[in-house]
Amino acid sequence: MCYCKDCQAFARYLGSAELLEESGGTDIYQTLPSKVTFETGQEHLACLRLSPKGLLRWYASCCDTPLGNTLSSPRVRMVGVLTKCISDPEALGPVQAMVNTSGASGEPVEETGRRQVIFAFLKRQIGAMLRRDHQTPFFDTSGALVVTPKVLTKEERQAATP
Ligand SMILES: [Zn+2]
Which of the residues 39, 76, 140, 146 has the least number of beta carbons within 10 Å of its own beta carbon? Predict the structure, then answer.
């Protein structure tokens, strides 16, 4: 669960603030991009950045539903999928970490599990590198993004930030 203001701004910019948990948390499932496939509607895949160097934040442009986040290099094999987009989020198990809790609204939220998240990320990275697992639906085989991200203006970003 990430409480950073940028994750909140992403959902709010797309008019999907209702996807946020109480206190503004975004429930994210970190996994390998190779585990994500788009069976239909790939033409609606769109991407935005809150700033020129910000995370790549993916969404479905047909309904403005936020989908997930990646870094800007396909070499970092990570996607954070918003669990609200998953038909059976219960299957993912309980929340394992609460991070960036200084961005939480209302009652303070205790920061937990950051170290485990980083460790799990590194373990996935190394495993994927050893297996030469570099499938990703977000980049083409030359390493270029499959769509051009829209970069928010400062004003757009500010308006969306809680
Ligand atoms: Zn965040």
Answer: 39
